[in-house]
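Note to self: keep these together.
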Amino acid sequence: MIFIMNDEKKLKPTLWRTCRALMNATRLNVLRLAIQNEGALCVRDYARILSISDATASISLRQLNARGLIGVKRDRIKVYYNDEQDRSLPDSIELQKAFATYFAAELPPKWEESIMTTLRAFTHFNRLAILIRLAQGPAYLNELYAAMGVCVKSIYHHLGFLQAAGLIHETRTYHGPSTFELVRPTDKIAATLLDLTLGNAASHAYYYNEGTGRATDKETKAVLKKVNRAEGNPRQNWRETGPVIIKPKPAPDTQPPSPDEEEA
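Structure:
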């Protein structure tokens, strides 16, 4: 497995947490109202239009604002929220544009469930690691095991969410193992999330300390651990040695050890 990293862009390793924040029908409707409304609305306006309590509206608005999906403006004692994005978070800008395109069309029945099915595929760093691996080409289950370093049951669990979102395709053969490959989604939101995930990985979306060359963010370390888990030292200084080449860990041997091996 080869990962080529550069310094041209900085990855915001909060994309999967942003998707988790959006995994709520109330917050999705709050975001829809903020995008569709031309002017700014106060907390009570959101609560009145959506028939929710002021506290629920306030919490939802603050969570969306923390992810850079909506803007906030204070006018004396009132707080107004609008559709202005946080320019320091490019991922949120692209994601809000995708939602704006989606909300501009006629919304289908149960559209919240449809969006949450898509978002669920991006709410865990193991699923992001699988997408990054499959972007390099189709893979068998044992190859995903070697790249991920987690149990097969867990990999199947994550693959199920990715398949439900239409992001991967499983090719089954009569005698051989199944092959998993990445599929380009037709849904605008899913396509944007996939582009952000793969674009961040290709442009070295991980925070590194300039002096040590090591990850400095807890979330980034978790992604690196799952994506680059293998023998060797994936934390080597890639600025001096070039691309990090990871040797995949072989699949576990299910054969019992021989008597000679047990004595040894």
